[in-house]
Amino acid sequence: MSRRLANLGGMAALALVVGLAAAPGWAADENDYPTDARVDYVFGCMAANGQTRESLEKCSCSVDQLAAILPYDKYVQASTILSMRQGIGQRANEFKSTKIFDDKVADLRRAQAEAEIRCYRG
């Protein structure tokens, strides 16, 4: 029974995040980020910034701003490159030393910086 209640609590948090992402006035119509990608971003952001209501609001804002700036396919490409760079060996080195990959990651970093300015300092 307690496992069922724990699952309901998690589902309620997920529903809240999804509801915030789809709220009127947000960037949902301006991009193609799927809901699961938004939720994953918010959960990761909250893990890094505290599990508070304030961090939920700022992280939700951040992913919406990021999505308004950077198309989803470019976000996926940059995220994949960053993931591959964490490995070791020749394959990881190729991802670390190729200019086109640097440019894709730089685009993501610029979009994240702009989102941070808009959501955390604005």
From TrEMBL:
Record has Signal as a keyword: yes
The residues forming the signal peptide are 1-27
- Key word Signal present in the record? yes
Q: Which UniProt keywords apply?
A: Signal
- At the top level of its lineage, which domain of life is listed? Bacteria
Q: What is this protein called?
A: Secreted protein
